[in-house]
Design brief:
Elements: H1 3-31, H2 35-54, H3 59-71, H4 81-88, H5 97-116
Helix pairs in contact: 1-2, 1-3, 2-5
């Protein structure tokens, strides 16, 4: 299998990474009156925190870099996925910024969901 194959897999992992991040950021708004979605979103954030604390990053980043290395070793990057994307914009994230932001987002939405518990559902799509 050639470099294009491995690069294609790396891009697929990168897309999965973006989808995960988008879900974590957008899901809370859909979950306001849906306890199952609330649990899913909080679990997704908790998983990110566990990986940040336990291994210092996301396994998707490791997988993406391993696939990129198979295609072209110079295409890999250090640090996490989010830090890498910000660095492409010329912004350097301090160490622990992603974990700290994730913890704050988790605590914020856990508090919002707790406060809304027991309120009647809003109208709209279920």
């Amino acid at each position: 299998m050639g470099p294009a194959f491995w690069n294609g897999l790396a891009v697929a992992v990168s897309i999965a990474h973006v989808a995960w991040i988008a879900a974590v950021l957008v899901l809370p708004y859909w979950a306001l009156d849906r306890p199952r979605l609330q649990a899913l979103q909080l679990a997704m954030l908790a998983i990110v925190l566990v990986f940040e604390i336990a291994i210092g990053g996301c396994p998707l980043t490791d997988l993406e870099n391993a696939l990129r290395a198979r295609a072209d070793p110079s295409a890999t990057y250090g640090g996490g996925f989010i830090a890498h994307q910000f660095s492409r914009l010329g912004v350097a994230l301090p160490r622990g910024a992603v974990g700290g932001a994730t913890a704050a987002w988790l605590l914020l939405w856990a508090a919002v969901y707790r406060k809304r518990r027991g309120r009647p559902r809003r109208g709209g799509l279920a």
